[in-house]
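[INFO] parsing input record for Acyl-CoA acyltransferase
[DEBUG] input buffer:
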Amino acid sequence: MIHTKVRCREITESDVEKIADLLTRGFVGRSREYWMQGLRRQAFRPVPEGYPRFGYMLDNDGEPVGVLLLIYTTRKHGEETAIQCNLSSWYVDPAYRNYAPFLTKVAQRHKDVTYLNISPAPWTWPIIEAQGFRNYCRGIFFSVPALARAPRWSKIEVISQHAKAIDGLSQDETELLTRHARYSCLSIVCRTPKGTFPFILQPVRIRRGFIAPPAMKLIYCRSAAEYAECAGRIGRLLLRLGKISVAVDANGPIPGLAGIYTERRGRKYFKGPHRPQLADLTDTELVLYGP
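[DEBUG] output buffer:
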């Protein structure tokens, strides 16, 4: 079949309902409300000037037949402000698969942008690497923070989405924690004699066969060393919430923590001028759309 009216264009707000229908059709097991919640969050979040709010679609005479969601953010690299783009959900109706390269070509055309793929299936790893992506995270460390000793004279504070200022944190980090609290994440600070340390965690289920124990994903911390420092206090809070394990992006076991490291899952890739920071998944598909 010849499709003479297919074109690749930016997704607009008026396309959102049809894009949700397309994604629901393409991703078995994801409800339409799942996609609509994420698209609504994308509709209202700040986006760097000059970049698309939602991403791109294949338009066949007004109907979406393919989609690639993009999530643009600004990131600080020292004194430099850089642009990062999370290449999120991709789907093309089978009859239009020969047009799929248009989506990826348009989406990755900015040489000054750092592109992320944070949820590639293992069978796609060689394909992604052939496209010029490099891994910055090789696996996951499943930590059990309650087994760590809590630092003396320390305490945990849960941050509300309505907090205006947090003692010991910059305004940027305050806004980061409150924004992610609005995304149903657990935003906390651990106060110790060594300082005030921010963390963002998200409830997930780590599926192992038919077993899916409740756990948390570490969405943000400044460094693995700070997480290890505060793990005991964080673990005791999580036990009260019925959570035992925290999954942390890592390239090996984390010193000072009990747990298991695996490279069978969790690999993450980037392409562009700036290597992403480990344990910084803020404002990505994982928090906007959910695990």
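[INFO] The chain has a mean pLDDT of 92.
[INFO] shutting down worker
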